[in-house]
Amino acid sequence: MKEEIARLRDAMEREAYVTDRATATAAYLAMTLHKPLLIEGHPGVGKTEVAKVLARALEAELIRLQCYEGLDVNTALYEWNYAKQLLHIKLQEGSSASTREREAEIFSREFLLERPLLRAITNADASPVLLVDEVDRSDEEFEAFLLEVLSDHQVTIPEIGTISATHPPYVVLTSNRSRELSEALRRRCLYLWVDYPTFDKELRIVRNKVPQIEARLADEVVRFVQRLRGRKLSKTPGVAESLDWAQALVALGADALGDELVDETLGCVLKDDADIRDVRSAIAEQGLSVLVSEG
Amino acid sequence: MQSTDVIERVTGFCRLLREKGLQVTPSESIDAVRSLALLDLADRTELYLALRALLTTRRDDLPLFDALFAEWWHQGDDSQAGSDAGQSRRRRSMPNAKAQEPQAAGGALRRWAQAGDAMDEGQSPGLSSPSSNDSRSKKDFASFESTELADIERLTAMLARRLNARRSRRWHPARAGNGVRLDLRRTIRLSLKTGGDAIELARRERKLRRTKLVALCDVSGSMDLYSRFLLQLLYALQHAFARVETFVFSTRLVRITEALARDTYRTALDSLTRSETDWSGGTRIGESIADFVVGWPRLIDRRTVVIVLSDGWDTGEPEILGDAMRAIHRRAGRVVWLNPLLGNPTYKPLTRGMQAALPQADVFAPCHNLSSLEALGRHLSL
Q: What distances in angstroms separate CA B93 from CA B44, B89, B90, one per listed residue?
């Protein structure tokens, strides 16, 4: 393994992120080739976490843009400071400046409020990590606009002109695949698919994040959740659910799973009523052991 | 390995991927070569992980990429697979080359393609205008001439219009007097004239929002007579209306959105012929729809109309179909099941599959002729 990749992986592990080689390699290449990294995977597998940990490991600022339908340039890029503009116009009352001159004045950088994308580009000291979270939730128009930022590291504001990055950000995009992303966007990114973790990896994550947990309980929790993922559920639990559950069980002072305990806390793992009923009846019929026994 | 050797092998690998249907652009090949200097080339797992990140763009690419990587880079050294890579790259036997070849697409599709040709050169869509009392609009698709396909274009335009009428969350400037919200930027600009007093208020309003459409089309043998027309409809919809996702299935689910988005019906069909769709094969409706639920979980939301086009002849377990339909029904704005057999007055949806699926459909309607498709318009706007 290349030393730099190993170092990045270690740095991420130090930030309490259980990192596999695929993630470390993709992140390393994204940084050295200066290309955005697109991470796809089921909800709750830790996609967003990659960007956060990367920022901490690099000691870089993390700038997060949460996408949603209807997200527009004003929210993502910049907005004008209207109050300040109005005040300025008031103060300039009676001045001999023409309307055009006054307009140029109040639509200048001084009156600009930076939103995440602009901040990511104008960062003066070092490259920040820009997290564009759930990019699949934004609409096509926004995605198209994002392309300019991602490929040229610059943005255009009609009233001011083009602003180019002095320190291009490291960009991480995440997607749950609620909508197919455009081919153009995909082509510009490195790609990483994050699957549900293996038993061993998830066990490491749980023991890492919930250090108080008893070894046996951690084992059972992870095995249980992994088995659940093999079932037909409308909301398959992610790693976040394993952690929530482990935390809850520790808080209840448990050191092993039992019928009653599972019954009481199942809501930590399953967030859908029908799923809960389904699993309850499976346990009632076949006993808890089908979900926690080894092998 | 000598570095020139490696460069050649990597470019050769890119070529192989391209030949086998993975899109690899020249700039991606260049990145792949650039990345070689950044990697430990003695470490096969690292090379695999790096090239995978660089040369794939979606999850669907991964199985083919893995197989081709194994073919190109591993010659018998199976001991290599490192711990992490081993998880995502289970030891697999090489997929047999025949299964990858498009012969499976078979003659049915080629015949459709030829019919599509006739249509491309055929008539202008405006010529025919079947009203509901036109005898042709009552004619069963099973006995349709390919020359009558133009009617479908007209229909599609109508359907697309229906799909286009809702307010979105995106704001845009309103004309004077309209609009519900203040547009501060424009108001300030206007107030410059009056020294900062906002006498004239600019307003903005919500843009029209569009419904999304997901179509799951049965192309198994029992649907042969109808699927050509339905595909034509889907093709037209894909072009008239941007937010359509189209899947076809017989024994397995294949996403054909991009293929349908090709320029002409003919090129679209050409590329479908090369896809791995099992045209006119058996039917596994339940499993196919379950695959959709698992593989594309968030393609559907409250503003999505899901259309299943199938006669419901499922050879699988009805529970699988019922469960999958329930999952869809719970999340979609509306679920429409179109069944060409419903056009026959004596038909009763008694098959086990149909029985399992029916409770999960908001609309159960025929789609065997043009007037039934026209009626479909009612069901499409949410």
A: 18, 11, 9
| H or E segment to which residue B250 belongs | none
The predicted structure's pLDDT at residue B382: 64
Question: What CA–CA distance (Å, rounded) separates A41 from A235?
Answer: 14
Which residues, in sequence order, are CB contacts of A149 under 8 Å at separation 6+? A117, A121, A155
Burial (Cβ within 10 Å: 0-12, 13-18, ≥19) of residue B362:
middle
For residue A15, what pLDDT is reported? 86
Nearest to A25 among B50, B184, B301 (CB): B50
Does the distance separating the beta carbons of B58 and A191 come in below 8 Å? yes
Q: Please tell me the predicted confidence (pLDDT) of residue A27.
A: 95
Q: Average pLDDT of A173-181? A: 82
The residue-averaged pLDDT of B7-23 equals: 89
Q: What is the pLDDT of residue B201?
A: 75
- Angle, helices B3-19 vs B61-73, to 10°: value is 140
Cβ <8 Å between B53 and A22: yes
- As a whole-number percent, the residues of chain B with pLDDT over 90 amount to 15
**Hey, what long-range contacts does B121-128 have (CB within 8 A, 24 or more apart)?**
B122/B147, B122/B149, B122/B150, B123/B147, B123/B150, B124/B150, B125/B150, B125/B153, B125/B154, B126/B154, B128/B154
Provide the residue type at A165 as one letter.
A
Show which of residues 103-142 on chain B sit within 8 Å of chain A, judged by CB atoms.
Answer: none
At which residue do the structure tokens 């009428």 appear?
A: B165
pLDDT on residue A30? 94
| Residue B179 scores a pLDDT above 70 | no
d(CA B114, CA A67) in angstroms, rounded, equals 44
Residues of A in contact with B31 (CB under 8 A): 33, 35
**Which of A137-146, B106-115, B283-292 is the most confident on average?**
B283-292
Range from A8-12, A158-162, B77-81, B296-300 carrying the lowest mean pLDDT: B77-81
Q: CA-to-CA distance for A248 and A59, rounded, in angstroms?
A: 32
Asked whether the beta carbons of residue B39 and residue A2 sit closer than 8 angstroms, the reply is: yes
Element (H, E) at B28: helix B26-36
Inter-CA distances, B30 with A113, A143, B26, B230, Å: 39, 25, 6, 42
Task: Please determine, for residue B202, whether its predicted confidence score (pLDDT) is greater than 80.
Answer: no
The residue-averaged pLDDT of B162-185 equals 64
Chain A residues closer than 8 Å to B84 by CB: 20-22
Sheet holding B253-255, edge to edge: B253-255, B244-249, B212-218, B304-309, B334-338, B363-365
C-beta atoms of A176 and B298 within 8 A: yes
Q: At what angle do helices B184-191 and A82-91 cross, to 10 degrees?
A: 10
More confident residue, A132 or A290: A132
What backbone torsions phi and psi does residue A79 show, to the nearest 5 degrees? -140, 155
Residues B126, B324: Cα–Cα separation, whole Å: 40
Query: What whole-number distance in Å separates Cα of residue A20 and Cα of residue A50?
Result: 11
Q: Identify the pLDDT of residue B350.
A: 79
